[in-house]
Write a structure and sequence with these properties.
- The chain has 62 residues and is mostly helical.
- It has one helix at residues 11-61.
- The mean pLDDT is 73.
Length: 62
């Protein structure tokens, strides 16, 4: 902490703060998109299982 003693309002401290802020936003976006895609994938998977099972049942019954 003391190694990076920079006076406030200096370009370096502003740059450091902005990079931390951007990394935080980016990680949140990545996490959000990951959970969203996972949910969509699970929904498609359930859909496939449900209709695949339905098709097998009807074909087997005929």
């Amino acid at each position: 902490m003391f190694a990076f003693f920079v006076p406030k309002k200096s370009p370096l401290s502003i740059w450091a703060l902005s990079t931390v802020y951007l990394k935080n936003i980016l990680s949140k976006l990545v996490l959000f998109s990951f959970t969203l895609s996972k949910n969509i994938y699970i929904k498609i998977f359930e859909f496939e299982i449900f209709f695949g099972y339905d098709n097998i049942k009807t074909k087997g019954g005929k």
